[in-house]
Task: structure prediction
Amino acid sequence: MRATDRVLPALVVATAVFMGVGLIWGFFFTPDDYKQGSTVKIIFLHVPAALMAINAWLMMLIASLIWLIRRHHVSALAAKAAAPVGVTMTLIALVTGAIWGQPMWGTYWAWDPRLTSFMILFVFYLGYIALWAAIEDKDTAGDLTSILCLIGSVFALLSRYAVNFWNQGLHQGASLSMDREEHVDSAFSTPLYVAMIGFVLFFFTLVLLRTRTEIRLRRAQALIARERQG
Amino acid sequence: MMPDLGKYATAVLSAYGISILLIAGVIFLSLRASRKSRNRLSQLEERRKKNG
Result:
């Protein structure tokens, strides 16, 4: 806890700087796209949120595997702490995608491989959070949510690679690519990278804060249990 | 200062508005839970000290 006491304020400042600069730069100081007009400004929310929606689940997967293999309690609590942040990112990606899709594709939603796998990932997040809340025994909850996390990882990976696997549907390929043809113009990519760093920092800041909360709650439960015994 | 968003102003502004609300919401809930857990734990630790 003492180490995180020192790290947390620095993370908060870094998050505010990167997220603030990325979003303000993207919203106020980028030109309109010749095809998409001003809707291109949604990219500064949609892409970082989608990135974190997938990576939050992958972080939960790693933490869940550590719990299953090493029985390290903090890793299970870190996975639990990441889920509400991950579901928020998934919801932002879905909502901004729908709002962006309407003027560009003529519809808010299509059963496109990437969109569908993202929707399934969102449902997995909700199921994961509900499962933690539904089981009283914390170790059993850790075990079952870890297994759910392993299963959901298929959809987390599909959300990222569905476009490459099926090469169909409305959703475009990666915005940031090594391929110059596909890569967005630097007028957009530079603030996009800044916003992405901001979202990554935002995720780690909140996960750290929420993990500390979970640890305190565990300690409180242990103290209550001791009081009852003694 | 406000950029001219043209005919897509509603779409862009609603995307930013909803996202900022969701981000603010998860920050608020996380801070509230953190404060509650800190208070709860310090109460229990004080009670434990008093009771020996």
Chain B touches chain A at residues 1, 3-9, 11-12, 14-16, 18-19, 22-23, 25-27, 29-31, 33-34, 37-38, 40-41, 44-45, 47-48, 51 (CB under 8 Å). Chain B is about 85% helix and 0% strand. The helical segments of chain B are 9-51.
